[in-house]
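User: Structure tokens for this complex, please. No commentary.
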Amino acid sequence: MASDQTIQPAQPKRPKKRYSQKVNDRRSGYLFVSPFFILFGIFGVFPLLFTAYLSFHRWNILGTREFVGFQNYSLLFTDDPLFWKALGNTISIWLISTIPQLIAALIIAFLLNQAFLKGKAIFRLGIFMPNVTSVVAVAIVFSAMFGTQYGIINYVLSLFGIDPIHWRGSYFGTHVAISTMVMWRWVGYNSIIYLAGLQSISKDLYEAATIDGANKIQQLISITIPLLKPIIIFTVLQSTIGGLQIFAEPMLFGVGGNYQGLTVTLYLYEEAFTRFSFGYAAAIAWLLFFIIILFSLVNVFLTKKIKST
Amino acid sequence: MNKSFAKKIGLTFAGLGLAFGLAACGGDDDGDTTDGDTADDGGDDAAAGEVELTLWAWPGFGLQDLASEYEENNPGITINIQEADYGDVHQNLITALAAGSGAPDISAVDEGYLDRMKENSQHFYNLYDFGAADLQDNYLDWKWQQANNVEGDFMIGIPTDVGPMVMAYRMDLFEEAGLPTDPDEVAELMSTWEDYIEVGKQLNDATGVKMFNTISDLYLAILEQGEIQYFDEDGNFVGDVSEQNKKAWDLAVSAKDISMNINRHTTEWGAALAAGDFATVFLPPWMLQNIKNDAPDTAGQWNITFMPEGSGNFGGSFLTLPKQGENAEAAYDFITWVMAPEQQLQIFENSGPFPSTPAVYDEPSIQELSDEFFTRPDLGAIYAEAAEQIVAGIKGPMHDPISQLMQDALGTVEDGTDPDQAWESAVDEAKRQIAR
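Assistant:
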């Protein structure tokens, strides 16, 4: 293009018409979307690639980087029981928090959608409130409630003659305590999403069902749940992504001596920022990335199955 | 200073900086290129008159009044003290050093992070280059040595406070158990850790009250009294064979029955203190306030004496000069002034931390420091004596993570795990973490 111009200097109008309107539109299109791609490149792609690069090194962030090849990965697979324990904990906490949470959210949304309910806005606000509460505050308050010897939950249990549970000292206790915090924060969020889905279901269906003599529970099972399927799939996906990244709750509650509350992201974080093994932490990050891909594929597979039924 | 808890919260937020930290690290190679001439710049700027020194610290240093006084006496110098949580200060400093820009002229560094910084001393000014050797006699010898590298030719920071450990005990509970309550008699009764545990069992039998909060705290108190803990002088891991580590572990395990199984600085710890459910606490001076806050109604029931087998150190910091700072000489002048014996005494008098300068230990304001809450009329004197007894342990960059592993393992022992098995897995995990 440049050489064309030097050869034909006598045609001053040519450069102006260098690009057609179509090309110009395309160019401005790219220009408009470029801020996202530039930011994504800096904060998304670069750290991703740099993490991959780091995972082949031994590095304490302040000193020099020492190339170690696949050593971090081989240690991770062959000599790191703690990582696999963390993965197990993460999945367990995710299941304990997600399943009851989604069921509860569905029931709450169903109740909130009832015609007889007065003051709907207040209830909706109330149920959503925990989601906008600071996770640190939530964890501190719940940690106090789950105290073994002076916690209010054990006190209430003792009123029913149940022995105090050592929340920080057992797998069951720690997983339930952390799951409860997650549930408390997210049940309202999911309820509101379900509620939006419910409101898109035509009232005629319920009226017809009522005339046919179906009770509320039959309506829930035969009308609401089938029609909510896409929304339910969405919330399950969201909870999967969130569940594999549980971090703040176990960090503030404490992971316990057996590391029964240690999740994968918390393990990664500690490896990097308390033990300063950045190379190893980077290897964990990449492994976690592949694990999340695996989970997503399973999700896609299940979703397709459900859709086709 | 509720350090471990503040640290946790701080780290949560610091975690958000992960992506930024990594992104910033790409350019760390060019960060050092200008270092050569920054020292000279410092001198020029100071001569020119207007110098602003930024100082990073976490709450509790008590430097603000002295900084104002320094500003008055040194026109043209402004000290800008920026406080953040304990964890954040160190995280931010490490990130700034790795990124090549953003570090302050002066940063406080706690002893827990000190070896990590010493390992990367290329990021800091060597205070011996400014003539720090002349000041050595002002400071406790063990504390001064902590700031030096192994060869003794690099000095990373000027000592601030120290945390000599003593033992607080509940006189009313001791009396109830038929034990002596006079501090000297108590110290004599518990001259060894075995005696301490024995007394704890008597107290527990007589009153049903536990002796202390958790065996991992007992473990730490004993561990800190030894020189070789997890690493030897050459930085080799010796935790699995170290006498002091084994001794601390075995004693802690044997004291399981007289422990509450509650961690320090938790809500439960405060509740147990207030309820009088355990009778002794090992604590450095800065922790006195925690007891007052958590258990205000126990005023006058406490007394303080020496721990069995000497003191130990818990906490304490240094003021360092990162090489990114542009006014090194002015900064050096300030930190050596503010941490000189006289000024450290002043900080202490304004209810700050305990001085690291033995020359002021005989001053009346330390010797006669009394506290009705803790009964003793000579609280300061016992701290001064404890401070001089301290043997500084050899730490190494991985000391804190390994200490955490051992404490966690003791936590499981307290919850019922077999001690030998817990020891094995903690030592194995320690070796794995060091190898990474």
